[in-house]
Each structure stands twice: as structure tokens, then as C-alpha cells.
Amino acid sequence: xxxxxxxxxxxxxxxxxxxxxxxxxxxxxxxxxxxxxxxxxxxxxxxxxxxxxxxxxxxxxxxxxxxxxxxxxxxxxxxxxxxxxxxxxxxxxxxxxxxxxxxxxxxxxxxxxxxxxxxxxxxxxxxxxxxxxxxxxxxxxxxxxxxxxxxxxxxxxxxxxxxxxxxxxxxxxxxxxxxxxxxxxxxxxxxxxxxxxxxxxxxxxxxxxxxxxxxxxxxxxxxxxxxxxxxxxxxxxxxxxxxxxxxxxxxxxxxxxxxxxxxxxxxxxxxxxxxxxxxxxxxxxxxxxxxxxxxxxxxxxxxxxxxxxxxxxxxxxxxxxxxxxxxxxxxxxxxxxxxxxxxxxxxxxxxxxxxxxxxxxxxxxxxxxxxxxxxxxxxxxxxxxx
Length: 386
Ligand SMILES: Cc1ncc(COP(=O)(O)O)c(C=O)c1O
Description:
Layout: H1 17-29, H2 36-49, E1 53-57, H3 60-70, E2 78-82, H4 87-95, E3 99-103, H5 114-124, E4 128-131, H6 143-150, E5 156-161, E6 168-169, E7 172-173, E8 180-184, E9 197-201, H7 204-213, H8 248-258, H9 261-279, E10 285-287, E11 299-303, H10 308-317, H11 335-338, H12 347-353, E12 356-359, H13 367-384
Parallel strand pairs: 2-3, 2-4, 4-5, 5-8
Antiparallel strand pairs: 1-9, 6-7, 8-9, 10-11, 11-12
Helix pairs in contact: 1-8, 2-8, 3-4, 10-13
The structure holds pyridoxal-5'-phosphate.
Pyridoxal-5'-phosphate (PLP) binds next to helix 3 and helix 4.
């Protein structure tokens, strides 16, 4: 290829001067673990999403676990999740002693297939106590249909909104529709705290459990024990708890990023629009439908004729780092026995796995990087499919 070689990373967090100042203020304050900044992050998140309860945690994995446990999911229960997801979705189910039931995805959108969800419920009956729809890449699942199936059967809905913020569905945020929703602030996400997450719910009983269980089951806020004259000297432990709290250092970064979340999402959207326009009609590539409601966490294309790995390799040779979201759980060694679901039951997921490729997408991506990725991708496809 006759152009100047560049390296384009797959994802890079956007850390502004204001972000650094906010974290520095916490570092200088003398209180770096969970405290007032974390409380402010939760309050602003709650307001922004218009939900009564939001709890910061140290990962979405922890958040999914707490959300499931808060809704009563436990031993002998079964939980439907898509096979096309990150291991965390299944792990959270296993932490509760429940069994993941792997469902297929819609071949067009790669979000949870409604017919596959219905089949899982028919097959496993009232063992199914919850479903975790994953808003794949920030594209919303068909939440109205999922709710219509689950509500009469009292199947709880925990939205895996790890990719979602600030993507929408109808007139609200993804993650605020089910019984609980869980966001990830991992390093590559649309809003990052390095590692971190947020659980939202409208259910007061679930909220009361989550608030305590995320920090050892302690019955009252203890972060203000040295600074508040009214803080009691001791505490009680009222439930089994975990060490899932978020630090104030991380929360400061999250609070600062929250201010420009829409702007960061709009820049991701612009990049996705350019990809979509540039790649429509290219040989050998299938595009997912453009969805205005997405958070644009991922831009996923499908490469035909078994050439995905060859395209991945060519892109890498030319300095462009791509990724694959995901190798499905039913094709992972551990989950062949730790979950229910196989290739025969999951044809759309299995077919997608051979074709999906995620291209670089991050809010701070430069015009030069974008132009370069477009050029390398087009040339690679013309070469592969000539
Ligand atoms: C779909 C999905 N669910 C859950 C998680 C877990 O998020 P975290 O890394 O914050 O635990 C991820 C992480 O990337 C994810 O992609």
C-alpha cells in the first residue's frame, strides 16, 4: 500500500485537562476511597437518567452480580443471556449459583433474539427467573417485546448496559427499562473511570440490598465516620456483603466525564456515520443497520466468505488494530459445560462469530486516523474480494 504507515489503536480513553484536575483534587484531599465524590457521581447519574436509585461499583461484573442477587436470583435458578456477550454476563449468573441459558441473537442487529428467548422459556419453564439482555455495542435490544414476554411470568430483566451509556431506547436511557440496569466504565467504554460501573433500579427493596451488599453488608454509610459529628462509632452487618465499592479517585474521573458524555457520544456517532457511508456497497462486507439510538461503543461489520481473519490480519499489518466482539460463550471451553446452549441452538450467533469484526472507534480519534482506517479497510476489501 502506497501511503505513510500509521498505527491506529482500537480504543483510547479520552482524558481531558479537567478530568486530570478533578482526580488530582481527590488525590490532594486526603480521602481517596469511597466518599463524598462517589456520592455526587451517583446523584448526578441518577438525575441524568431520571431514576430513583444509582449505585457506583468497581465494575459492571460486580454490578450484574449485585443486581441479580438483589432481585432474588439464586441456587437452582436459570437465567437467559445471549451467547454473544462478554464472559462477565455469565459469570454474574454463576456467582449467584444459577445457571446461564444461552440464547441466540437476531441475525440483523446481533441483539437478543426474541424467538430464541421464547424457546428458552418454553424449554426450561419456571426455572427461568431472569433474563439479561445485552445492548450489543450500545444498540438497544427490543425491550418492549422482552418486557411483554417477561412481565406475565414474573421473569426479572437485568439490562447488561455495559456498552450503553448514553444510548437511548424510546424516550429513556438504555439500562433504565428493566428491573435493574448495569453500566460499565471500563477503560474502553464511552465514559470511563478506568475500572468501574453503575447499577440503576427503580425497585426500593433491590436498592436497599445493593447499597449495603456492595460494601460488606454494612448497615450505614461509614465513609463520613471521621468527618461528621453525627456519625456513630460502630456499625452493624445486616447481610452477606462484597467489596464492590468505587473509589473517589475513579468517581472524580466519572463525574468529570459525565459533563461531556453527550459530546463524546456525538463524536463517536460521527465516526460511525462516516464508516457507514464509506463502506456501504463495498465487496465482501455486511453492515449492521445504523441505529440513531446507539451509544456507538462499537462499530461492527461482517466479513463474508470466511475471510474475516485474513482481513483482521491485513488491517493489523497496516497498523490498524481491530477486535472481535465476541467469541460466543457456547464456543468457550468452560461454558460448554457451565451453561446450556450449543451451535445447533444458536445458528445466528455461530454464523456471526465467523464474520464479525470491530473497527477502531473512540471519541478522541483524529481525522487522520479515521481517514487512514477507511483507506486501509477499503483497499483490504478490494484486494480480498477482487
Ligand atoms: C457486555 C459486557 N457485559 C459486562 C462487562 C463487564 O464490564 P466490567 O469490565 O466493567 O466488569 C463487559 C465488559 O466489557 C461487557 O462487554
